[in-house]
Amino acid sequence: MENNIITIFDTVFTGMLLKKAVFSKCQDKNTLRCVAKPFEKKGQFFIQFETFTADGKALHQNKPAEQAAAYAYGLMQDAFKQCNLFTTGGDCEIKISKSGKMLIHNKIDLAAAKCCALAAHNKEKNTILCEGTFYPFLAALGISDAKGRIFDRRRAKFKQINRFLEIIDDIYPLLHPDKTLTIYDLCCGKSYLTFAAYYYFTEIKHRSIRMIGIDRKEDVIAFCAKTAADAGFTNLTFLCQNIDTVQENTADLVLSLHACDTATDLVLNQAVKMKADVILSTPCCHHEMMNQLTCESLGFITRHSLFKQKLCDAATDGLRALRLEAEGYKVTVLELIDPEQTPKNIMIKAIRKPISNDKREKLLQEYEQACRFLHASPTLNRLLAEKANDAH
What dihedral angle (degrees, nearest 10) is formed by the CA atoms of 192, 196, 197, 198? Predict the structure, then answer.
């Protein structure tokens, strides 16, 4: 291959030989590096240039393969002093010396090279909501502009919404296939995920639903009600009230995202009371256990506040999962989003299943034994016990 930088870039990019290219040693200290990778879109071959900045941003430029060589050459001229090309036929290193001379160490063997098989992660990820598509509720919530472009500062929220909808999509087959679905979001807050769920059921699955969001904050409920009206979400209602005053006897799906401390217990109790087919709950804050836990055997953990907090988080949600199992739910605990974005990313997914009396008693015994060990008296157990007493 001719040792000319433009020729090298053009041959590697248009010949579909690129695995990865890394541009480094940027003249601007605010830019860390740029990584180029190939991907395919609608039968056309592209190179994505992803530039990482010192303030944690990742900026993307997608160039058709035939235009990528000129773009890469511009990066070397204007910004970076080194580029390492990794191809199917070998590697090539390009450096710019202090005197400005281009130094090329080329080990690419075109005879041995072959077209790059695109890895799955290099293809566009199939997300339920697509960037570039206008969703009125996302614009109303300040996540996108009027053209569907996601604001940089709201990308984490957009990612969280898509991850949440993936979980909804996973449990969708478990819901009744024909009737109008009744869905509650308890302690709904600003209802980002409520709106997303409503859109999923009505616009993607074309289901008839009745959805109710409940929260105690009047200003938040007023905002949500206006947003629902502006988006044309006619069967989405928001109520300002305590969640334990809900009179509904049945529900297909109960949602609760980041209800603080024992509010999560109120939600789970209400969901069980309504015999919800599916419960999706992400707890937040675990003050009750922090104030109760006095287990001497765990002193080597609890004497360190950070360890104690993590233990209380896990113990609280572990007890919640076990107590739900005793109420006839199959419980799975999963991560809602990347833990780097927030430590409060655990979701409890509970699916109602028949349970025998023997199994229930065994689970309750295990639960009570765990509570005695921890010297804990969880709110959820008290609420469910009150419900059981009222039933008798």
Answer: 100
